Amino acid sequence: MIIKIDQSKCSGCKICMEICPVGAIEEMDGIRVNMTRCIKCRSCVVACPIKAIVIK
Ligand code: SF4
Ligand code: SF4
Question: CA triplet 55, 1, 21: central angle to 5 degrees?
């Protein structure tokens, strides 16, 4: 399972970066999830106002 941000939807609001408990969301050529840090808590998926974060 991976947490992925749909770059075509993401507005760059950074709400997900603020809410992630382990700092796994980084800004690097768009907002991206660093899966080596992500603990798959799904907080960002719930928090994204436009549902740009998907679980695969
Ligand atoms: S699933 Fe949780 S740990 Fe992973 S990026 Fe989202 S908020 Fe951070
Ligand atoms: S909360 Fe959603 S729209 Fe905002 S930066 Fe994160 S992925 Fe993009």
Answer: 70
